[in-house]
Amino acid sequence: MRFTSSRAGNNSNPKSAGSFPIPAISAVIAVSALLALVPGCGTSRPPVEGKSDAEKEAAINSMYEEYRADFPDAAEIDVEELLSLQESQDVLIVDVRTPEERAVSKIPGAITMESFDAMKKDLIDDVVVVHCTIGYRSGKYVEKLKAEGIKAYNLKGSILSWVHADQPVVDAEGNETKRVHVYGERWNLLPDGYEAVW
């Protein structure tokens, strides 16, 4: 299964007809300046140099454990447990990342949080596993679901641990890819051979 804002101002000032008003130019300059401050905004980056895959995995696990305090009641599952579970039953994987992140790549068969929210009342008995980049946003969402009476598991290490376990990710067309949106530079912990985007 594949799942794949701007505002137009109304310029009613006749003195600026045919040209951009000063506020519009100022807005463009401000947005450009903000984008310049965001490191690597939307660009691809090579993997972190000088760290082995084992060191990157250890960093992912350590960061996840730090985050865990913010969602202590969220049930969790690791990649190995998820793969074993998938051998015996259907598992619904929910991706809580942004559309921009999902456009780069996703776990095959994962659905968006928005799609899940639209039908979650019909899926109460399903096995639901939620992921994001490393497990923070998905952990918070799992706690929200628990408060609504829906059992779900947070994927520990999320998409970062998924690719470290040699599991595939696919692009918007469903083709396997080695590109992953890692949310930001701090989470650029992909295994060798992958290309990080943020």
Percent in strands: 5-15%
Q: Describe the oligomeric state of these chains in a short phrase.
A: single chain
Count of extended strands: 10
The residue-averaged pLDDT reads: 83
| Radius of gyration of CA atoms, rounded to a whole number | 20 Å
Number of domains: 1
Share of helix, binned = 25-40%
Apparent shape? globular
Biggest sheet architecture: 5 strands, parallel
| Major β-sheet strand ordering | 2-6-5-3-4
Instruction: Give the terminus-to-terminus CA distance.
Output: 25 Å
Name of the CATH architecture: 3-Layer(aba) Sandwich
Low-confidence stretches: 1-42
Tally of separate helices: 7
Q: Secondary-structure element sequence? A: HEHEHEHEHEHEHEEEE
What is the topological layout?
Elements lengths: L21 H16 L6 E2 L7 H15 L8 E2 L1 H10 L2 E5 L3 H6 L6 E2 H7 L7 E5 L4 H12 L5 E3 L2 H7 L4 E2 L5 E2 L1 E3 L13 E3 L1
Parallel strand pairs: 2-6, 3-4, 3-5, 5-6, 9-10
Antiparallel strand pairs: 1-10, 7-8
Walk me through the structure.
The protein is of the alpha/beta class and 198 residues long. The chain has a single domain, classed as Rhodanese-like domain (Oxidized Rhodanese, domain 1). The chain is built from seven helices and ten strands. It has a five-stranded parallel sheet. The protein has a three-stranded mixed sheet with strand order 1-10-9. It has a two-stranded antiparallel ribbon with strand order 7-8. The model is unreliable at 1-42 (pLDDT under 50).
